[in-house]
């Protein structure tokens, strides 16, 4: 997707927003040639033992040039790709030999056992909003997978991403606007008042911020990003605007039916923060 949108497909430093307990995407990034991986979250979830197993499985996939799982295996995963074959155009024989060098893979394994250590290629940080978690202008690419719908302070999140990225660095996010089983209809979470939503959330550190598609776009652009890709997916709404809670009745018809999106944005320059 980065290559399709004329973004650098070989970022040296990557950061994942909200990886949860599995660092699989970041480990795949390191295996494919990245030099450093920041994993930032609200609370710590990941454990070395399980991620060592994931690492070995991903290495085997690269060595076997395994195709990317498609709709038959993961029908709900977005965005859809044009081609699910192993990306030989990005990983020819020479590059594969380089990235799968035994010494290089040993170093990554050691980093998994020492996440956050001074010389580790993996910097696992929580909470993400503490000052100095990621050095300013040090990251080439930031990404997340169905995470930003859970972040309460989106303005700070996008501002932090802007500050972390190098000039012309980019972000890539899949955002899920559905109710996550909090309501009968996929967009039924917009029917609850703020008071009711507070009761539903309870003591959990996060649930859903309930912000629609347009809010994310506006905050990204306000933070200083130029949107180069916005693949919105729509779903039928059985909820009318008159059924929404007061704070959501003014959302657009497009927001009401946008259930998911894949967004990529490039850091622009000369933005006042």
Q: Would you kindly provide a written description of the structure presented here, covering whatever features stand out?
A:
- The protein is of the alpha/beta class.
- The protein has a single domain (13-267), classed as Rossmann fold (3-Layer(aba) Sandwich).
- Helices cover 29% and strands 19% of the residues.
- The protein has eight helices and seven strands.
- Strands 3-2-1-4-5-7-6 form a seven-stranded mixed beta sheet.
- The mean pLDDT is 93.
- Number of discrete domains: 1
What is the name of the CATH topology? Rossmann fold
What is the tally of helical segments?
8
Secondary-structure element pattern, one letter each: EHEHHHEEHEHHEHE
| CATH top level label | Alpha Beta
Give the second-level CATH assignment, the architecture.
3-Layer(aba) Sandwich
Question: What is the 3D shape?
Answer: globular
Largest sheet: 7 strands, mixed
Structural class: alpha/beta
How would you write the strand order of the largest sheet? 3-2-1-4-5-7-6
CATH homologous superfamily annotation: Vaccinia Virus protein VP39
Oligomer: single chain
Distance between the termini: 29 Å
Q: Hey, roughly how much beta strand do the residues contain?
A: 15-25%
- Mean pLDDT comes to 93
Segments where pLDDT lies below 50 for 5+ residues? none
Cα gyration radius (Å):
19 Å
Helix content: 25-40%
DSSP strand tally: 7
